[in-house]
Amino acid sequence: MGAALGAALIDPGREVRWVSAGRSEATARRAEASGLRDAGRLGALVGECEAILSVCPPHAAPAVAESVAREGFSGLYVEANAIAPRTSLALAARVRRAGATYVDGAIIGPPPGAGRSPRLYLSGGHAGEAAELFAGTSIDARRLGGDPYAASALKAAFAAWTKAGSALLLAAEAAARRAGVGEELAAEWSAMPGVGDRLRAARRDAAAKGWRWVGEMEEGARAFADLGQPSGFHAAAGEVYRG
Ligand SMILES: NC(=O)c1ccc[n+]([C@@H]2O[C@H](COP(=O)([O-])OP(=O)(O)OC[C@H]3O[C@@H](n4cnc5c(N)ncnc54)[C@H](OP(=O)(O)O)[C@@H]3O)[C@@H](O)[C@H]2O)c1
Q: Whose C-alpha in 22, 80, 170, 238 is 20 to 30 A from the C-alpha of 192?
């Protein structure tokens, strides 16, 4: 997603940099193919860029914000990962102490390409400045009013139905199989519109990227607890994706 967003930002003529230090070959290949310039190390990037967009697995978001703050970044920091509002609040405090301006964000939808465009939701007093960065790109940047961490809350609520809902299907399927009634459950589900397709997608996605949804589900549980909702949906989904 990070490479795709970077490529979209280059389209209207912006220069986009990334940091190769510590990253895998696969990530380096994606960044190069997307036309991003390698700043080499974070210290260089912080000195050269007006804005930093954090797009990484949710469990790594605090470490990324901490490193950026330690480098003394004083520009616009857009936290676009699937983290709880409470986590985002803590990251905001950290990067602001270093002198940066913070914007809470969340991405919904697949990476841009082939006519698709993800929504980048932005909240807080500086959301407009962050949305400006995406003017003229294929990214649909949307400002949210109300709570400064509304973007993170929206993502947790969205993932409750998508990722936590899919995990529920996988757990139900496993339970029925364990009880020897897997075929009967499959037959019942086959009569219900959409369940078969959703189950197949859930199996495929859990195998490919379930490991990195564990952190997102932990953050979702935290978000729901703070928003007065049961935290168990996301917590159980995290257990399913942990395998
Ligand atoms: N993919 C989607 O369709 C989608 C949709 C909506 C939202 N998102 C959001 O986008 C974010 C990234 O998801 P993704 O699908 O792009 O994940 P991904 O394909 O697993 O890529 C994650 C990237 O983050 C890098 N990374 C890992 N740990 C890092 C660290 N400590 N510091 C800096 N970079 C680090 C990885 O580099 P290495 O290869 O070196 O590990 C990799 O390049 C998540 O917050 C997710 O919620 C994604």
A: 238
